[in-house]
Amino acid sequence: MRTIDKRIEPHIKLAAVLVRRAPPLTLAFDARCKSRLAATLDNGEEVALLLPRGTVLRDGDILVAQDGALVRVVAAAEAVLRVRAPDRITLTRAAYHLGNRHTPVEIGDDYLKLEFDPVLADMLKRLGATVEQVSMPFQPETGAYGGGHKHGHDETFAEDYAIAQQVFDEHHGHDHAHDDGHDHSHCGDAHHQHHHHAHR
């Protein structure tokens, strides 16, 4: 079984012919968040993914096997909710409420996409959005989620939070005391949580 252990950085452009010849590896979002994975290429070959921890693969990424062969990542179609709204403010409110729940969301020009969830679908409809269940590739924002489903309790989230809080303090002064021991990566403190979502 071949081991795939490198991703070519997106800014490095490969010859189109090499990309075309690379066998596809079709993976759903959950699988693209795992750095250790047994997977099957579209041609039926079984491979082992051993990528750096925290790697989140995107559609079109090129991976390199230990024997130097290339593999092209394809985002699989999966059951998602596509959310649209009659106006931008409704769509923005929908994104805000989803963000408050630490739900991975793909943000498009005029749509949001999230994993199928009937409870969230109901909430979104009440906000005035239209929701349809479709089968499409899912590529959520990954900044605040690191490896996917840690729901905000990881280092990347804490770093994002610290940056947002620092900017907020620079602009608004230190009008509230900070407890240095406070763990910003946990979401129990509603006061801090609102700053995080309002100022990202």
Structure in a nutshell:
The protein has 200 residues and is an alpha+beta fold. 30% of the residues lie in helices and 26% in strands. The protein has three domains: 2-75, HSP40/DNAj peptide-binding domain (Sandwich), CATH 2.60.260.20; 77-137, Alpha-Beta Plaits (2-Layer Sandwich), CATH 3.30.70; 155-198, no CATH class.
Written description of the protein model:
By secondary structure, the protein is α+β, with helices and mostly antiparallel strands. It has three domains: 2-75, HSP40/DNAj peptide-binding domain (Sandwich); 77-137, Alpha-Beta Plaits (2-Layer Sandwich), CATH 3.30.70.790; 155-198, no CATH class. 30% of the residues lie in helices and 26% in strands. The protein has helices spanning 16-21, 29-32, 88-100, 118-126, 155-172, 190-198, and strands at 2-7, 24-27, 36-40, 46-50, 62-65, 70-75, 77-84, 105-107, 112-115, 130-137. Strands 2-6-5-1-4-3 form a six-stranded mixed β-sheet. A four-stranded antiparallel β-sheet has the order 8-9-7-10. It starts with a strand and ends with a helix. Residues 173-200 are annotated as: Disordered.
